[in-house]
């Protein structure tokens, strides 16, 4: 990649990939980003991973969308558009023509349905200001709350459990607090690949003698640094965690003083845990009783402990129960509200925390204020100088696509999301997209979802715009435009504003700073954090207690934002995964990301270095299983579930149990989500991406 010395200018911004939120210095030459270096941000202290350092050239890729496109009359919808030559299915349009067409379609669909026929998917890749504007557009423009984004596929169940039991959906401590911990649990997370810079802090913690307990059905990379590696059976989280808590109760290792001062429902939790003995749970979770006891003693024996978790915890039909267990474990050991202690669901996308905070969810307005609360809606109606909107919770991501099939949603505005790749049972999702009367896709590339669009609006990439993002640590950070968008592509906030005006809304934003200031008026969490501060300081952690406070890395030292100020124990019982292996589908498939590729691959598969390192769709299978199937490592297998089949290259990987297969979901040519199960957790409405029953066959061509 480029020379970082021979540059015209440098611009500070934020890495656009994961929720760690590393600060970067962009080296610009002749109007293009030539190199990226890490700088001293609060989350990364100069560090970057391979994606942040080398995954930037997608923004200059020839496939970038540069002009609005309108589908040609009669052009078939489906995965049939060559991104290098979209004119076979689309024609170029002016911005006025495209925006007028969108506004007119939405207005007529809205008029016929009292606004209910329109839904929007916003993006955790856009700025806070853009997320705020998008949810405002759906609510103010159409009067309903049918707006959601990929948090539904990510940590919705974690947030449901945190809101219920702690009173706040964000982390209680920054991940960097691990430097003050002496024990830590990392469960259902593969930070070495998915949050690589955070993982460097975890490794350093282990290196200086911290006790690291890694729990995962896969032997994830962090196991090399673990004092305890619990490779439990997939879907058995509650059995394992309840057994560990049973030991803590039985051996009197809990923190009675903390429990009495800060919690409620302890006696019910204690009584519930009595039957989850290590001996009873060992056959269910696959971890011997003595190892469960050892892990329990290690965690409870620490002076300060942190718990980190990822999608392995949340993406189950019992994801909320999994998180409830982790919250209970932290509460009973007094591990919230002090240095080196806390609950930390590691956020995926760079701005999934901020987009959720900004109200890009169907049941909450900004700052998780319920749409069902008349007073809350009144506050926002006044802020927006508009009438009331529905107090009914809107539909979630998967519910919206079901409603398209049912015929009640007819128009969608999809900004920066790719449900044609990212949703469970993606064939069902693609079919829904093809049925819409009006699908508007706003993105930087002609994504798989854009293949189904009626109108495509070309957007600016992250390094082409100004705006704030909030990372997994609650750090609000300033992203800065370093280069101009290609052709006629525009910043998302500007496109949303121009569409809103055509829908009759009286919006006059001319700069994202105005949007931030309005948003902050409706969000107590942003008190003392002004746009000007962020421009000057680059990052402020919320909550910030004064105009000069850099923010609080640890919260809830004095109690919780719940009635009575106490956190709650919510007992969790064992619920089986929705679809268990059987004779026809004997393997468990789990899905996830890889170090080099980000989510549905639209950016990283167009990044030269990253795609060169990892160019081909692949899955990971234990070598003994491959041997039994007669497949050599590097050969092809056919994976079949009740929903479909894909053919994919198989890698031998001893970290995957013999009855499992791991499939990354970045590859359209072998899309993992053709196979996944759309069953959802009843609280977070998150699909069970981490458990589907599949069959593995030797592919024909071998
Ligand atoms: Fe970017 Fe995440 Fe890597 Fe940091 S750790 S450079 S934010 S992808």
From TrEMBL:
Molecular function per GO: formate dehydrogenase (NAD+) activity
Domain of life: Bacteria
Domain annotation 4Fe-4S Mo/W bis-MGD-type: ranges: 8-63
Keyword entries, A-Z: 2Fe-2S, 4Fe-4S, Iron, Iron-sulfur, Metal-binding, Oxidoreductase, Repeat
EC code: 1.17.1.9
Keyword set includes Repeat: yes
Keyword match Isomerase: no
Family: Belongs to the complex I 75 kDa subunit family.
Name listed for the protein in its UniProt record: Formate dehydrogenase subunit alpha
Gene source species: Seohaeicola saemankumensis
Taxonomic lineage: Bacteria, Pseudomonadati, Pseudomonadota, Alphaproteobacteria, Rhodobacterales
Complete-protein stretch covered: 220 to 921 of 925
